[in-house]
Amino acid sequence: MADKEDPKNGKMGKGKSKVVCGYPLSIFFIVVNEFCERFSYYGMRAVLVLYFKYFLRWDDDLATSIYHTFVALCYLTPILGAIVADSWLGKFKTIIYLSIVYAVGQVAMAVSAIHDITDSDRDGTPDSMTFHIVLSMVGLFLIALGTGGIKPCVAAFGGDQFGEHQDRQRRTFFSVFYLCINGGSLLSTIITPVLRAQECGIYSKQKCYSLAFGVPAALMVVALVVFIIGSGMYYKAEPQGNIMLDVCKCIGVSLAYTICINTFYITAYQQWLKKLLIAQIKMVLKVLFLYIPLPMFWTLFDQKGSRWTLQATTMDGNFGALVIQPDQMQTVNPILILTLVPIMDSLIYPLIKKCGLNFTPLKRMTVGMLLAAIAFVCAALVQIQIDVSTKQLLHSSPYILSGQGFIYFKLTIKGKANSDTEIVENQAITFVGFTDYFLVYFRFVNGMKTAVNVSTAAADFGLIEPFYYSNYSQIKNGKATFTLRSGSQSCEYSTNFGFGSSYTFFIHSTLVFGSNCQDSVTAVEDIKPNSVHMALQIPQYFFITAGEVMFSVTGLEFSYSQAPSNMKAVLQAGWLFTVAIGNFIVLIVAELAKIPKQWAEYVLFASLLVAVCVIFSIMAYFYTYIDPTEIEAQFKKKINEDDEDDKSKPGKAEVEMVKRDSIKCHDEYDKATQTKM
Ligand SMILES: CC(C)C[C@H](NC(=O)[C@@H](N)Cc1ccccc1)C(=O)O
After folding, report:
1. What is the ipTM of this complex?
2. What class, spelled out in words, does domain 293-391+531-624 have in CATH?
3. The domain 398-527: what is its CATH number?
4. Which residues contact 392 (CB under 8 A, 6 or more apart)?
């Protein structure tokens, strides 16, 4: 496809877009669209599990399964979007239509989270949960269809805006595109949890999930509007037909041959297919073959959201002025992306080039895999640190308490208190999965002959009978002041709760109300506070993100540049399919390999990726980079020459006629096969 750039002033790019600093202006609308769309997607995803758990009242297992199924679906639907774009609607129309589907899905999610809709008795809880569940599932399905469907099209459509000789600009575009993904996701993962924490409602005030879903819905509408505004400037490649469908057509025509077409036309059609189609199929298959080992990278990469977040729940998130939630650690990834992509593009890669090294895309991807493996080794080292500190805790843990002369007490400790814990009958604290990192557990044992009431400024924990103990209660970590009261007399006891800690407070029989009761209460650590700091996770985040920059940003561009013109979106979908497979591997390995030691599981994943990386580097060594546009042009030229040389073969016009006839023939073939059925 010829570039429409004006050779004199260079003001026009491909399509009708103006050129600014060597870049078509049209890509501005595409990157803004991507920013808003990723804000919408990641913003909604950030609060989804909590919506399942606290609004729809699902248990952890159901919430987690539906969440992962949704994410996997989002990376499977790109295939659908790509086929529609490449073979039928074209990328532009596919993006518009599927964005509408996407926005409708987001709105459905926002509406499904309005509790007042079905709260006829106005008690603050929805009366018909079925309505909310059905609407949210429909919403999620539409979102998966929309976000996945447009994903391969937007990236490929952006790439289409560049001319044949704008390789450098196109590479920069893919980097900027990636920056926008991460800028949008970073902002939304910070903002939507804040929106969710607000209280809203008409009849009763509840956590505002409708706002947390409503803002991403609005951003999706903005994404669509921005994309439409740029409409007049885009270069819109016509859908050229999808190779897969063409191959099927080819078989169909061969079968229909006996019914409706003469030998001359079939021979010409086969000539056309043999040369152009088979060359294109070869290009695609070569790249797809190379993709086989890639899911392993995503298997490690996507554990940031699961294993690494769980690891963070056993760590200390106190950063002085800032207290970080375990799931907030994930924002380190987009923050590092925003820093590392410009550094790599403007410093590291040019420096490597200056040293005379040819750092090809496949070499970059190999290094990216190795960096991800290093990240998992770091995660294993951090895990060993955590395990050592937990071991110390188990040895020093007060399983049997005496000493006060009046009570014997036994505790069974099974997990960290900063996790979503279950207090079972034998007073064990059992780990279930984290919900609120800021909450810690405590209870009081009353050694006095009178009943004692325990309260704080915010809550009353009730009356504890003489020589009895209270149930565990939750309180925010940090400093807490308890008021102990007996009749009209009271005193205050202050203490500090570290992250993940749990305490039993023994009220001495010698306590005198009205005086300082600080010395008359003994605090015993049931569970020690987390002692390994969350900052220790930063190296693993650094390596996985550096790996992502080398692997994912490069892979995105590689998938575009190595695809034949009629398979750009399909190869993008193939690339995203590796993400879906990677996610399935996480689910399978988590189920099958029940490795008791978490650090050993991290080492296993790192070793697997190194092994896969060796295989990939061998495959990459034998891969020859191609320029599909040049091959296609040369090939078409050759066909024309052959046709002119050999008068027995059909000319250009005849080939066109063959194509038309083959379509007619398809209809005949369809009719024939339908009547048979
Ligand atoms: C997995 C996708 C192919 C790539 C891309 N994702 C990212 O760029 C992530 N770094 C974004 C992110 C943001 C917040 C928390 C974790 C990850 C995408 O979404 O297109």
Report:
1. 0.97
2. mainly alpha
3. 2.60.40
4. 528
